[in-house]
Amino acid sequence: MDKIILTTKLSLKDYIKVSYHLTYRKLAIKFITGIGLFILVSIIFSYSSLTQFPWIQLIFGLYFTVVIAILVYFYAIRNYKSNRRISETINYEFDSENIQITGESFSSKLTWNKIYSVTENKDWILIWQSRQIANIVPKRDFKEGELQAFKDIVKSQSGLKNKLKK
Fold first, then answer.
1. Are residues 151 and 106 located together in one domain of the fold?
2. Which of the listed residues 58, 82, 106 is the one where a domain comes to its end?
3. What is the 8-class DSSP label of residue 95?
4. pLDDT per residue rounded down to tens, the chain (166 residues)
5. C-beta separation of 95 from 153 below 8 A
6. Are 4 and 93 within 8 A, CB to CB?
7. How would DSSP label each residue in 39-94?
8. Which CATH number is 133's domain given?
9. What is residue 123's predicted lDDT score, i.e. its pLDDT?
10. At a CB cut-off of 8 Å and minimum separation 6, what does 21 contact?
């Protein structure tokens, strides 16, 4: 396959899911959530021996677990609604030299040597332009054989970091 062409459109649900994925893949967030869970579990096991309910520990435990998850949810909704480019229909063209990305209100052409990395999870391919900015490509939009051809193109790029499944 010389060129892979696909069209995609992220729904709000897609964007919320990818926001959770990107947030909770960070070691710091996993650590904070673990501390919150530890605090909540310790309250449960020590409550019967305490004379006064540990409200401050409960607040911190809930903040570290529940509030962060709620904030990610609402920030994702706000970002999706405020940045109209996220919800546009986007056409991607991949070949061994470039990535052409065309939305309803923008167009850009990127060479592979300027791409920071390409990662994959169960549902998406993430094409990282920098450590903070990624293009989200749902795997469901690749036709049969195209996903493997895309992976072959990425793997053929020298110096490009990739975390693609085999």
1. yes
2. 82
3. -
4. 579 999 999 999 999 999 999 999 999 999 999 999 999 998 888 777 767 888 889 999 999 999 999 999 999 999 999 998 999 999 999 999 999 999 999 999 999 999 999 999 999 999 999 988 999 999 999 998 999 999 999 999 988 888 888 7
5. yes
6. yes
7. HHHHHHHHGGG-SS--HHHHHHHHIIIIIHHHHHHHHHHHHHHH-TTTTSEEEEEE
8. 2.30.29.30
9. 93
10. 121, 124
- Both 78 and 92 in one domain: the answer is no
CA distance 122 to 165: 9
pLDDT at residue 1, rounded to an integer: 58
Global pTM value: 0.84
- Asked if 138 and 10 count as a contact pair (C-beta separation under 8 A), the reply is yes
Please report where in the chains the tokens 């895309």 appear, as a residue. 150
Strand order of the β-sheet with 124-128 is 134-138, 124-128, 117-120, 161-163
In residues, how long is the chain? 166
- Both structure tokens of 39: 């605090």
Distance CA 136, CA 79 (A): 14
* Dihedral over Cα of 76, 109, 8, 153: its sign: negative
